[in-house]
Amino acid sequence: MKKIASIFKSSEEKLEFYKDCFFSKETIEKGIFASISKFNEQNYDANMFNRYLAMIRAVSLMYQHLHWITAGDSFYSDHLLYERLYKKLSEEIDEVAEKFIGLSSTESACPIQTTKIASDLLSSLFPGFETNSDSNTFAAYALYLEIMFLELNNAFYKKLSETNISLGLDDMVMSIHNSHEENVYLLKQKFKVQNIKN
Ligand SMILES: [Fe+2]
Question: 62 alpha carbon to ligand 1 midpoint, in Å?
């Protein structure tokens, strides 16, 4: 049988090593826990995170419902476009909620608060929403919501930059901005096509 060389000269040395590891593991953990509590005091406001989450939820909700209710000549392409958008947003939302909880607390993803704010937002932005509107109106609603979201994302980024924004959060907010600029492009192109037709 092949003999495996040990890094320890004796079993006492091996035991000593394990004891040291255990001790340093405890010390490290204590250090980590201390840093985690400091990290939580980084002025990340769970309520602010919650409002942001609600807004992105509202955009996603709108897309999913437009996917169902859109109708008319451009039905199939609209149906697919809104599906693509709400699916993309659902992935973003998952990332956003998990990041927020990690940086603040579970309060930032409270289901009651989030849906309440999202619902208030949608009803204040679209007071006379009609489910039988034409596809041009729906696309205008979506574009309006995206532009509002980009404004909010900008303001959110500025607010976070006042303190020490974590690199991960910075990256997430920027990539969300990039993704929503793409949404604006897609919706604008759709408008161009429809305006030629009308
Ligand atoms: Fe569907």
Answer: 13
Q: In which residue are the tokens 């208030």 written?
A: 120
Number of domains in the chain: 2
- C-alpha 179 – ligand 1 centre gap (Å): 22
**Ligand 1 center from residue 65 Cα (angstroms):** 10
Note whether 36 and 47 are same-domain residues: no
* 34 shares a domain with 24: yes
101 alpha carbon – ligand 1 mean position (Å) = 30
DSSP string, 48-113: HHHHHHHHHHHHHHHHHHHHHH--STTHHHHHHHHHHHHHHHHHHHHHHHHHHHHHS-GGGG-HHH
| Same domain membership, residue 96 and residue 62 | yes
Tens digit of each residue's pLDDT (9 = 90 or more) over 142-158: 999 999 999 999 999 98
